[in-house]
Amino acid sequence: MTLAQFAIRNVWRNKRRSILTILSLGFSFLLLTLMMTIWRTFYIDEWSVISASHIVCRHRVSLAVPLPAYYRDKIRSIPGVMDVIPLNLFDAEYKGATTDDFAKIGTDSREYLNAYPEYQIPAEQVAAWKNDPAGAIAGSELAQEHGWKIGDHLALVGGQLPIQLDLNLRGTFKSPYPVRAIYFNWTYAQQAAHYEKDQLFLIQADSPQNVSHISTAVDAMFHNSPEPTRTEAERAFDLGLIAMFGNVKAFILSISLAVLFATLLVSGNTIAMSIRERTREVAMMRSLGFAPRLLQILFVGETTTLIVCGWMFGTLLAYGLVFAMVHSRNAGPFAVLLKIPVTTLAVSLPVAGLVAVMSSAVPAYVASRVNIVQGLRHVG
Prior knowledge:
The chain is of the alpha+beta class. The chain has helices at 3-11, 15-43, 71-76, 123-131, 140-146, 186-193, 211-221, 234-243, 248-277, 279-287, 292-326, 342-368, 372-377, and strands at residues 54-59, 67-68, 81-89, 92-93, 103-107, 135-139, 153-158, 164-173, 181-185, 197-198, 200-205, 229-233.
C-alpha cells in the first residue's frame, strides 16, 4: 500500500463523520461559489459586447416618473446617436394574476432588434411585427411554455393605464439567455390611452467611445426643462438598480468571509478529532521510523482529500442551483445572466487547498511530535 492510498483510506475510517463533514463543506463551497459567481457576473464580466454602446436615459428624479415622448426626436439630433428606443414596462394582466409571470414591454418594432442582434428571429417574422401596429414578439421559451403559436391573439388588461390591448403574436426569438417577456409596439398603447410619455429611452451609440459624450449632451439638452434627465451607460444603470437592494459588494464579501471561517472551523475540528483518536497509532508509526515531517504530510493529505470531496460536491450543487435560477419561471432580470465560468473554479479550488493547509497545519504539527512513550500509553 502506498502512502497516498494509506491517506485516502484514513479519510474513511469513520464513514459517518466523513460524510457529514463533506456535506457541511459542500454547503460552504456552494455558498462561496455562488457568491463568487454573483460578484463576477455583476462587477467584472461584460454582459454583452453590444451593450457597451447602449445608453439609458430616464427622468432624473426617479425611474417611476416618465419622460415626454417628444424627447426621443430631440435626442436623435445629437451626433453619434444611431437609435433611440422607448422601453416601457406595461402594467397589465394576462388571463388573471395567477398566470401573469412575464414582462410586457412596449417599444418600437422598427428599432428594438437593432440594439439586440443576438436575438435570433426569422426575417419574415420581423417584417410581420413591423407591419402590424398591434404586433408582438415573445421569447421562444415563454411561447413554448404557454403554447403560443404565430398568429395567436394575446389580450392584456392594463392596470395603471385602464386599457385593453389585443396583440397579435407575430414572432418568437431565441436568446443566449431565457427572456420571459413579450415586446409590442408602444404606439398602439399610446394611441389607445392618449398617453404621450415614455418610461425610459435606450440610446444606441455608434461606438463605445461616444457613450460618455452622448450621455453628457443629453443631460445638458434637458438640464433646464421641467423634466430633466439622467443619462448613463447601460451597465452603470443596471448596477444602479442592483444598488437599490443595498451594498451588494459588502454583503457578498461578508458572506464569503463567513463561509471561509465556518469551513476552517468544520475542517479543523474534524481533523483534530481524527488525529486525537489516533494518538497511539501515531506513536506506533513514530516507533517504526516514520519521520515527523512525513506524518505531517499524511495528515495534510487526508485533510486535502476530505476538503476536495466537499469542494466537488458543493461545486456540482452550485451548477445545479445556478441552472435552476436561470431557467426558473420567476427568474429576475439579472438572475438570467448568472453563469459559472472555469475561472471561478480556478479560484475556488486553490481556496479549498488553502483551507486544507490552514486547518490541518497545527494539529498535524502537534501530533507528529508527540512523545512516543506517552503516545503508546494514551487511551482514547
